[in-house]
Amino acid sequence: xxxxxxxxxxxIFVRLDPAQNNLPLAKRAAMLFWxxxxxxxxxxxxxxxxxxxxLRVIFNNSCIDISDLLxxxxxxxxxxxxxxxxxITGMTGPFEEGEVRCQGKKDDVFFERFSxxxxxxxxxxxxxxxxxxxxxxxxxxxxxMARHCMAQHSFFVFDRRWDDLTxxxxxxxxxxxxxxxxxxPGEAGEGDFNEMIAALSLSKIQHLWEEYLREGVAYEEFARxxxxxxxxxxxxxxxWLVGLWQAMEGAGVRVRxxxxxxxxxxxxxxxxxxxxxNPSAAEKLFLKFMFPN
Length: 293
Hints:
Helices cover 39% and strands 23% of the residues. The chain is an alpha+beta fold. The strands form three sheets. Strands 1, 2, 3, 4, 5, 6, 7, 8 and 9 form a nine-stranded antiparallel β-sheet that branches. A two-stranded antiparallel sheet has the order 10-11. Strands 12-13 form a two-stranded antiparallel ribbon. The longest helix has 16 residues, at 25-40. The chain starts with a strand and ends with a helix. The relative contact order is 0.12.
């Protein structure tokens, strides 16, 4: 890392938002990542240094005025930075990296500027966030969060690997019947279920089908997407069909229709489930996809 000297520019003070400060730390970090993702219209890249316990979240091909950045995002930057070491970095010249450090711990924080030459800086190219993390597990959780940040979806979707991490559990939506863990960057319960389901990637949808084909478990995600389809919405439906085909191929499941009867091979669990009373949403969706007419 380049050695940097404090510039002659005055510190920029920021008044924090008490409502944001009351949110769990992971929610505030998610809010910060998501708002910046919207600002730059991209999913950021990230890397974690175990030696320095530092996460770097980089928005390539971006350029931002430091004063404008702090005017718009200063409160949320400060709300995270009062608990975790936080810096804003970026290129100030062909070979020089500038830095804006968050200082202070209470209701007001301030930001100071540093550069290798000590010269004043106003713009940062290829803007990045640097977060100091209390532990490697928390650092990797924040890295996973940055990886799932999409400007078009407000929900962050995680698998179950972070279930024992307090930082994560405090921020998840209280949804016990769902397979995945959902984090909404705002007050709990304010998110929309349709938006939550829309945030599922193809690989995550495929895994839900794999769980159903292997174990016969129909998690709540199936009920939600089936409700959407029943209400007339087809948005995102194709991913559920493609995910099913991929899961069937991986599990060796085959479906044939002969003389008006269908035959399923390759999954004893599925065979035991099909045709019983009170079919699950997953079974209904499976049959609709296999026999749409």
